[in-house]
Each structure stands twice: as structure tokens, then as C-alpha cells.
Amino acid sequence: MKLYRFSPIKNEDQLLEAIKYIHFACYELCRKSIGQYLPTAGNVGIFCHYEDEYTLLTKLREQLTEASYNFNQKYYRLIKPIVIPKKDGIPETTYDYLYIRQTDPYRSQVGDVDFVLDHSKYIELKNKIVAGSDIKGARAFSRPDLDMVELYNPDVDVLGYITTETMAERVRVK
User: Fold this and answer.
1) Residue 41, class by beta-carbon neighbours within 10 Å (0-12 exposed, 13-18 middle, 19+ buried)?
2) What are phi and psi of 115, to 5 degrees?
3) CA–CA dist 89, 37 (Å, integer)
4) Which residue, of 61, 62, 73, 125, has the fewest CB within 10 Å?
5) String of DSSP letters for 24-86
6) Are 92 and 23 a contacting pair, CB within 8 Å?
7) Comparing C-alpha atoms, which of 135, 110, 132 is closest to residue 53?
8) Domains along the sequence of the chain with CATH
9) Which SS3 state, helix, strand or coil, does residue 3 take?
10) 61: left (phi over 0), alpha (psi -120 to 50) or beta
């Protein structure tokens, strides 16, 4: 039995297939939770489940992204952005940044996408969630260094995050 949908990813073609899957699944997750498709921050994350997979994808990422001297950087700028065309009402999206998450066999998700809202709409959404409004599949993501809303569904193997444009820029150290 294969526990993870794409892992272990072994080449660039499989990586791109996983990114397409994450893209469409995250947009559907967003629509089901929020009631609409939000714009993305332009970054996509791939979650590794095996040590060899992480090593291989880190090397592949080095070929696909600009070099960085910031050892703590999470998102790397793609040399050639990944464009996913519009399909079934889901808007065309360009991903400019790639994140390869370290191995975590206890988290089965394929990856994640960050969506953005303007500051006032984000605060309104987060306040509703914190006040206990039942927004199915959305919860406050509480980490001291990140202010985000997490989109999730136990039957879907991706995660989405909603943040403000400011926050989206902050996680991409240049």
C-alpha cells in the first residue's frame, strides 16, 4: 500500500505533477472553505516524506531556483516561473517561489499553497474564526512568528494558508 500520493518524488516531471495537483486541490479547498477562489502569494510548497526524497528534491530545487546565501530561507525564487493555465473556473496562476519541506513522515500532505487577502478582509476573516464562527475547514494557525489562517480537510492531502500580502512577502527572505 502506498501511503503518500506522490512520495517519493524522483524527478522533475513527478515534481511538476505534484505541483499541479497541489494547485488544483488547494484552490478547491479554498473555495469550499471560503466560498471563493483567492489569489495566491505565488509560492508552492512540496512536503517530503523520505530522507532520500528530500535530498533529491533539494538538489533539483538548486537547479530550478536562484542561488541564495541565506541559510534560513524557506522559499526560493524559481528561475523559470511555473504557470498553470486556467481550468474549470480555477484561475491561471504563476508560481514564482518553491519550497521543499524537510522530511516529516507523520504529515501525509503533498504540499501547500499560500493565498492572500487584503489586510482588512483578512482581519475580518480571522476575527470570525477566533470568535468561533463555524467556517468549515478554516482555523487560526497559531505560531508566534506567523499570522495565518489554515485551510484543511482530513479527506484532502494538501493544506492552504491565507495571509496578507505583507505576510506573504515576509516569508520570502531575499
Assistant:
1) buried
2) -105, 155
3) 9
4) 62
5) HHHHHHHHHHHSSPPPEEEEEEEE--SHHHHHHHHHHHHHHB-----TT---EEEEEEEEE--
6) no
7) 110
8) 12-170 (3.10.180.10)
9) coil
10) alpha
Q: Are strands 76-84 and 93-101 parallel, antiparallel or unpaired?
A: antiparallel
Q: How far apart are CA 76 and CA 74, in angstroms?
A: 7
φ, ψ (nearest 5 deg) of residue 129: -65, -45
pTM given for the model: 0.91
Q: How many CB atoms are located within 10 Å of the residue 18 CB?
A: 21
Cell numbers for 150, please give them.
489554515
Name beta bridge partners: 100: 46
Which burial class, exposed, middle or buried, applies to 106 when counting CB atoms under 10 A from its CB (0-12, 13-18, 19+)? exposed
Q: What is the pLDDT of residues 118-174, one digit of tens each?
A: 999 999 999 999 888 888 999 998 776 778 999 999 999 999 999 987 655 655 544
